[in-house]
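Record pair follows.
FIRST:
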Amino acid sequence: MADTGGGAQLITAEAPTADATRGTVVWWQRHNGRWRQAGSAPARFGSGGLTEGTTRVQGTSTTPTGLYDLPFAFGTEVAPPGTAMPYRRVGPDSWWCEDNASASYNRWVDPRPADCAAAESERLADHPVQYGRALVTGFNYDRPVHGRGAGIFLHVNGKGATAGCVSVPAGAMARILSWLRPSTHPHLALGTAYGPTALTRY
């Protein structure tokens, strides 16, 4: 890869092609300058496939490719044993604001502010399976570009492809959260096996 984020832990999520909705998530630990696989799981991607993160358009159900940090974890369930990442428990008024007109665009809000329309946002408690445990990705997070997309997570599998997130089985999600250490500056790399959105480009 061109860049691994400079840390000692990395999660890769790779699809075979840009129009694929399934692939593989692998988590890696750097030791003595070498990356070693710490675990892997089958993954699901957006129903619209994958697309370059810097030009993604909201509402396309595409998973944004790129290299992202991992700001915090959250869930409707308690954090798995050993979790060191900052972990927020989902409550009845926990929302992810996806309203392009809101000052809280692409942010966790609890409660939902008046300028963040419910119809344009996601009440996290409404998805107790998928958001049983999840990681926020840094896609469009530090300086959100309105219209690019909001609420891109690594979360537990639902019934099929996602709306743009990456999902894995519940057991894998628990293992990832127990393994991650904020002190290692972990990142998530999303990409395809080859082509303009190849994982190795990021």
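SECOND:
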Amino acid sequence: MVLLRGDAAPGRLRGARALWHSRRVSPRLLLPVVLVVAAASVGVGLLARDLYHRPAVAKADQIAVPSSAPSSVPRSAQPGDPTVRLSVDAAQHPDGARVRTVLQEFFDAINAHDYDRWSRTVTAERSTTTPRSLWMSDYESTRDGTILVHRVESAADGRLRVLMTFTSVQDIAKAPVGMQSDCIRWRVVYPLKEEGGELRVDSVGVNGSSSQLQPC
């Protein structure tokens, strides 16, 4: 008999099969291993999906601590740190980090007396109704600090309502009517809305009954 390439003698075939069966892992032992590997793969996939969809969160140094309260800042150091911080409650809102980012740019622009930078943080309507000359006159001596976002709420009209406090110092001549002080603590509700894919500070509700003021 002529053996072709790939053939083997019958005795050798029987020996090979016997060797395979003697070393083959039992299905009963293999099944738990397969299940563990599969579970680990699913867990990694879920973790990756969760990380991908998880919204940005504020860093630890952007979360308010008790020492950041306005009363803890001495009069000589007012208005205090210009960093915008979030309460724990505000930081837990899905848009908390985005709110902090736009407000930080908003207040940085005021402190730098930079109208063009400020106009990029507000809605087109607010920018249009606040001309450069008026804005520069109102804010030429203003510095803001001790800025704390207490709460972020989603409104029915798709906007966000941001309850916050901050301290401003300015020339007395530039202080609001009825509050002639060079240092003022503000409690306000800022409306924010999506515009061009970014959050912007809107004009409605910034002044008037939504603002509470007291001298430092």
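COMMENT: The first strand starts at residue 84 and ends at 86.
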